[in-house]
Each structure stands twice: as C-alpha cells, then as structure tokens.
Amino acid sequence: MRTSDIFKLAFKALRDRKLRSLLTILGIMIGSAIILALIASSSGLSAGVEAQVGKIGANTLTVSSAGQFFGGGSSGTQKYQLSQQDVNTIKSFQGVSDAIPYYSQRVTIAYGSNSIEGELIGVDTSALSTMYKGLSLDSGGLPDSYDPSAAAVGYSIAFPTGSSDQLALNQMISITLGGSTSSSLTFLVKGIFSEYGRVLFSNIDETIFISLQSAQILLKTQYFSGLYVMTNTAGDVTTVQQEIESYYGTQVRVMNAGSMVSSVESITEQMTVFLGSIGSVSLFVAAVGITNTMFVSVMERTREIGILKALGYKPKQIMGMFLSEAILSGIVGGVGGTILGYALSFILGGSLSMFGGFGMSGPGQPGSSTSGSSTTFTPVFTPELIAFSLLFPIGIAVLAGLYPAWRASRMNAVVALKYE
Amino acid sequence: MVDRELPSRAGLAVQTIDVTKVYRVGRIDYSALRGVNLKIGKRELVSIVGPSGSGKSTLLNLIGALDPPTSGHVIIDGVDLRKLNEDKLAILRNQKIGFVYQTFNLIQRLTATENVEMPLIARGIPDKIRRSRSLKMLSAVGLAQKGNKRPTELSGGEQQRVAIARALVTQPALVLGDEPTGNVDSKTTIEILNYIVQVNKTLGTTFVLVTHNPDVANMTHRMITIKDGLIEKEQYLQPMDSYTGL
After folding, report:
1. What are the tens digits of pLDDT across the range A274-322?
2. Span B42-65+85-236: which CATH code?
3. What is the DSSP pairing of strand A150-153 with strand A184-193?
4. Do A311 and B64 lie within an 8 Å CB cutoff?
5. Domain boundary assignment for chain B
6. Is some CB atom of chain B closer than 8 A to the CB atom of A18?
C-alpha cells in the first residue's frame, strides 16, 4: 500500500467527520500555539531586558527618596529629600565614580495640534551619554545650563506616530506640569534625539530633557528627584548599594539595573513556567481528545474495518490508516498552532512588556513609565522553536493515536462485519 | 440429480478437513460447525443452503480466511490456512478471494469507483491503473455512469453490483457470497445470477454462495445442505460442462 494512498484515505475519513476533526485539531492548535507564543515572547522579553541593561550599563545604581513611593511629586510631607550634600556624600563612597542628580516630572507637551504625555528630566545634559549608552542626537545640540529655556526632546515627541505635525529645531513647545493646571511653560527645541526606546524605567523617546538648573527654577525646588550613581566596575554595584543603604537606612530607595533585570527575569521565568504548564496541560488534554475521538471513530467504523480486513488489508495497513488520521490532525494542528502562536506571541509580548513596565522606578516617579507606550518586546522565533512547535503536536498525535489504531488493526474480521 | 462428477478433476479450490468451530457466548460454548469435510473444485459454482443458525455463514467465513477453525484444516488452492500468519492471510484474501455480502458492505463515504478500487489500493497498484480497472469493472456490471455516486445515492441492486465489481476487480480465483441476492428485488436477482454464471463460465471463477433462495441454489452445479453444523447432503444439480445457466 502506498503512503500517498494511506494519507488520501485518512484525509477522506477526516473530511467525512468535519466538525469532529476540526474540534480535535483545534485542541492541538491551542496547545501548540500557547507553548510557542509563550517561549517566543518570554525569550523576547528576556532579550529586551538584556538590551536595556546594555543601555544603562551594569555599573549603574539609582537612588531615590523612599517617600516618593507614596508622596508623589514634591508635595510629600515626611520624606527625606536628596540635596547637593547627598550627591557629595555618595560621591565620596568607596567604588563610586560619579553621582548624577536629576529632576523628573510627568508633563504634557503641546505644540501644533499635538498634545503628548511624557516625562521631563532635568539633568546635567553632558552626563546623558554616560546615563544612556548609545543615545545620540538626530539633529541640533544639547541644551546647556546658560540657556534656561532650551530643551532637547525624544524622537516620539518630535515625530509622533499618526500625526502630521512634527517638530523642527528652534520651534517652541509648551509644557504643562502634571498635577498643576496653571503653570504652562515654553521651551525652545534645541535638539532632537534619535530613536532610542525604553530603558527599564522610562521611555527616552517620550522624554524632554532640560538642564539641571532650568529644572531647579521650573520646579522651584533644590531637592532632586533622584541620583544616578555610577560605580567604577560592575562588581562594585552590590557593595556600593550596601554602603548607601546602611548610611541612609530606609530613607532612600536604591535600585541597581542588575537586580531589576533579575527580578524581571524571575517574573518572566515564573510566567513561563506557569503559562508553560497551562500549555502542556492543554496539549495533554488535546492528546486525550485525539485518543477519545479515535476510539469513537474506530468504534463507529468497526464495520468498515471488517470490510478492509475482508478485502485483504493487513493489520499494519489498517493501523497505518488510522494512525495517519491522527498524524494528519497533528500536522494541521501543528501548522495552525504555529501560525496562531506566532500571532498570539505578539499580543502576549505586548502585555508582558506592560507587565514588565510596572513597578519600575527610576529617574521619574515610581510608575512613571507610560503604560500605553508603543514599546513592546519583540518575540524571538528561533528555527528550533518553530520546528518544535510544528513537530511536537505531530508526535503527541502519534502517541495519542497509537492505541486506538492498534485496537482497530487487531479487530476480529467476522465480529467487525456483523457490527451494527 | 445428475451424475457425480469428481471436482478434483480440475484441482481443488477449497477443501475442509474435519473443521469445527466453537463460539463461546458468555460461559456457554456453542458449536457452530461440528466436523465439516468438503471439497470444492476449481470452476465450480456451489451453493450452501440450510436453516438459520445451521452454520453456513460460519463455514463461509472459515473458507474466506476471516476466522480460524477451532480444529481441523481449511485448505485454499492447496495452501493450509493454519500455516499462514495474519499478513499472509490478508494477502491471500486480497489475491485469491472476493466477498459479496447480503448487506453489500460498501464504505459509505467513498464513491462507487473508490469502493471498487479499495482492494487494489491494498496491493499498492498505482492510481491510474486501478482507476481504469475499476471503471472497466463497473461498466461490466452495468454501472458505467454511476462511478461518482456514493452508496447512499444508489439502489440496493446497484449497490450489490458495486460490491460484485469490487469482489471481481482483483480477478480472484474464488468468490464467496453470503446471501448475495438477499436484499435485492427478483429482477436484479436474475441479473446478478446471470452475471455470476457468465463470470464462472468465462473466467473460471469458483463461486460459493450461501443462500436461502431456491432459485439461486437451483442454478448452481452443486447444492450443499448444512444442518446443525454438519453437512446433511450434497446434490449435484447440473453438470459443469453442459451447464447453460438459468
């Protein structure tokens, strides 16, 4: 018997029971899709997180006032406030190469017909390239401390998606501070950054940078939102963190990029294990579904099996015919599941990245990352992963179909022919 | 009754030696056959008659290599079936035996042509060859125009003719019929019988037909009557040489 004939007959048998076959295949598809989407998006998330670490560097710590978590903005009452004195103190710690103070505030940026939610960061702009590795200007220059109304803006502020209004150099933009309705300030765009993307805590493309002095005047405070602390080597990060924590106690919150990464990664890992077990369970359920469907099918076609035996089909051929029905379901389910999983991984990637965005704090307020950000982690599809998601369901289907197919092949011809 | 004619003249198509078959229903053993000795010669057209439950269908299943006897030997074309394993039995059924059943036993989801092709598919015969052989066979039974119809779209008589085409497409030496005209009208019965006689004469195919119908039995060379699992009598009705059919 030719292999092509076996599959042709299997196809006809599946087609004869369309709905049932489709439901069986759907079960396989869902299982395979979940597993593919999961692995692709969680490895995409890990890759994205690692890329961000590369941007800020593993030798970076952030220090922010602990009270900020609850106070929000500068209106907090009982919190410790970081001043120039703290900058000097931290700079003097063993292993610290630099401490860069910054101001940060949620703002609304308006020009032309655009109104964009973003973040204002006041910082010594010459330190930007140390803080964000690889950040470069698309056009113009950095605002310096002598020019209080100069600003440099992120790429998405200058070129918002879905808007024809775009920023040019030396154009005026209006900035409204978050929380207050009255104070609207005007800045002159001196520089536009190239696309950079998200670092763990904020989206640089949606940030407007001004000098430290300008921010100090604008926000009417001499206390900083936080400090960027650079250590001499990545190995110093832990000791410096301990030094700062033992000096300030619970007054400040110290975060290091490495620990953020590992916390994101452990979350990712847990989600992978959790969703992966759901995926495996659903594939297992699909396998049981195949077995069940095939048992029903074998029983319904008892008479047909008797006919096949009378016509001189060998047990192996009959087994092959039934098994290839399972294999066909597995192939269709695997291919469909891979396509579905491919689509699903982008949806999942989006929600995972939002998930990853929560609870991160940095230069901005806690939770200052824009949850509606268009930045998502791109799922990673390796050839091995695709091969796995195509072949694994077929393997499962074969295993699930083995026993019913064997039962079919062992059936007694005379009994089968009498079956009503 | 005509003169006894030794079937062995042309060699034996079927021989059974002390064949018994015991079915176990629950805890009760039920003897369907209790020692059947039978010789059927090549080119013979034989009918097996007997009351319901006499064991005639059981005998047909043993001859058809579908079921092994409890004891005794079934020899088809000189080969003792006991010496064959499952695969070899399947090959023997495919190459030497054709089956025709009262209930037609066609595969419902396949077309008439596809049904006729089924035994050829088991042999691995290429698509085009088996298609043309099946179509030729269908037109031989007068269904040239109905190849694309499914069994449900055909009358009982037409379905039985498809089944006959399927049984004969492999050019078997032996065709076994279990009440082949049991579910068709009298006109179709005559058509089918004429065709069987024609095939028997022209191709020399051996036929063994289990039947209740005296008309069917009367047109065969020999009528074997079975009762209570034993051969009660054998009657030679027509000489093979002068045989002209109905």
Report:
1. 877 887 888 888 888 888 888 898 999 999 999 999 999 999 999 999 9
2. 3.40.50.300
3. parallel
4. no
5. 42-65+85-236
6. no
